[in-house]
Amino acid sequence: MADWIFLDHHTRTRPSDELTLQFAKEAKSHWLMGPTKKAKEEICEILGFPSGNIRLKANRFESHIHLLFYHYIESIRQTGRTHILTLENEQESILSGIKHLEKFEVQGKILPVNDKGQLTGAALQEAVRARSSLLSLSFAHPKTGVIQPIHDLIRICRENDIQVHLDISAAIGKLYFQLSDFDVDFITLDGALLGMPFPMGVILSKHSLWQTQEASYAQYSNLAVALKTNFEKIETYSMETARLRDLLEKRLKALGAKIPYYGVERLPNVAVCRFEGIHSEQIIHELKKEGIFADSVDPFSVSFVLSDEEEAKEIDRLAEVLPSILEKLQKKRPSFTEEDAKAKNMRLCPGTVGKKEEGREFTLALLIDEEDGIIADAQFHAFGPPSLHDALDAACSELLRKNYMQARRMTADLIEKKMSLAPENADLNLIIDAIDAATECCMDIPIEDIYVAPPDMGTGERTVYPGWETLNSAQKKAVIAEVIERDIRPYVELDAGGVDIVKVEDNRITIAYSGNCTSCFSATGATLDAIGNILRHKIFPDLMVIADTNLLQN
């Protein structure tokens, strides 16, 4: 595999050697104090911002949260104008910040963008109400590169006495502008995107900001140098990086991609593409395996954000690996047919859930034996992220050789145990819904009331609980209860059964069954053996497990 290639400049920006050395020098020379006021004035002069009200925060997210809460306290609480406006595709830090304020009766008004990714003046004017107090948006979208018609939007806000927050993080070094041209109240930017050696969120305001612990002179000085250095890169981005962006889009088009923002006023370093029928996060996941990093705009769109360090060979590498990735992801899974099912004396039971426009949609199809209700095979067709596909693979594996009632009792925890990727609750909940939907059509098939074999619980990696032999009975019981809850109970509950600890005496454990387990022939055989094996495997090799037979039915 080639060296890592970072085409997600908005997420990962390599720290500049020059800025790292400059910060180290200033931090050492001015460790106690320094000409901070002069550094602030220099920052404002570079940006063309008329006020020296600057605050440095830990990162971009914190600066957005701080600014929004400041607006809530200093404006909304005073005026009662509780509406904050923003774009439907705005940065997550802005959207989530507004969401947090909804706990204080603030209403976030999410405005639609057009097919060019822009908020039009007409859409803003239509959304304005007497309670509108702030418009919070990015000058240029960090993942699509689309530049907003900012002068028109600011004019409408001023006509309606609405304050404006503008994030300029993505535009610095890519566009020439002076903040004196924008009549806005608040400016934010992300210092990490400038190549600074540490994360930094920056707030500039025309209004007096709250007094907080002052950042060091070295930080302000480093920010000033970073801004100056990045604005000197505008020609490089406009010429060389834009050429590489165009080359990338040409290669993507040749592979069948659609370029949704082609021809729109946008940043010179951002390309967005869509491949029909493939979830964007699937492409990103496969690219990451090849050492190439990109980002997702939405379920359909992949974003490539280039830095000034990008070279043509990196675009060539992307074009080299993409065809095989697309072939893999576009490959159709085999499908069950009604004819196949009837030929095998099976019933085809499909369940479809989700909505493609929301990023997740799939059909889970089960082949169920008409004689005993056992699931003989399971398949799925899905549009969704890698976590959904992984969860569906795990669910299909777990469903095999279980009857449909066991399937309906399956929990998200059981599916999660079989997954190789980090689970998403939304995926697991959808799969449970799909299982319920699929098994609705087979409830008339008779199944046995008593099962002679328990579900395969597995054992996993062998471990010995630290200091087991030194624990008292109550402590041992607590450890055993945790393992039963995690690794045993979910499987027993598939048969509408239950298991509890009666007592623990040294290494002798007595358990009691409930539900269907009390009438199951394997309760003192295969099921008991499986439970004992798990406890010996997970806790201590000399454990002995016996069942309280007083509760078992004859």
Helices and strands, with pairings:
Blueprint: E1 5-6, H1 17-29, H2 36-47, E2 53-57, H3 60-79, E3 83-87, H4 92-101, E4 107-111, H5 121-127, E5 132-138, H6 150-159, E6 163-167, E7 186-190, E8 201-205, H7 217-231, H8 234-254, E9 270-274, H9 280-289, E10 292-293, E11 295-298, E12 301-305, H10 312-330, H11 338-343, E13 346-355, E14 360-369, E15 375-383, H12 386-399, H13 404-408, H14 412-417, H15 425-439, H16 473-492, E16 497-505, E17 508-515, H17 526-538, E18 544-547
Parallel strand pairs: 1-10, 3-4, 3-5, 5-6, 6-7, 17-18
Antiparallel strand pairs: 2-8, 7-8, 9-12, 11-12, 13-14, 14-15, 16-17
CATH superfamily of the largest domain: Type I PLP-dependent aspartate aminotransferase-like (Major domain)
Count of DSSP E strands? Answer: 18
Please state the structural category.
Answer: alpha/beta
**What are the segments in which pLDDT stays under 50 over at least 5 consecutive residues?**
none
Mean pLDDT comes to 91
CATH fold topology of the largest domain = Aspartate Aminotransferase, domain 2
CATH top-level class of the largest domain: Alpha Beta
Strand content: 15-25%
- Shape estimate: globular
Distance between the termini: 64 Å
Structure annotation, total helices: 17
Give the oligomeric state.
single chain
Rg estimate, integer Å: 30 Å
CATH architectural label of the largest domain: 3-Layer(aba) Sandwich
Biggest sheet, spatial arrangement of strands: 2-8-7-6-5-3-4
Helix content: 25-40%
| Largest sheet entry | 7 strands, mixed
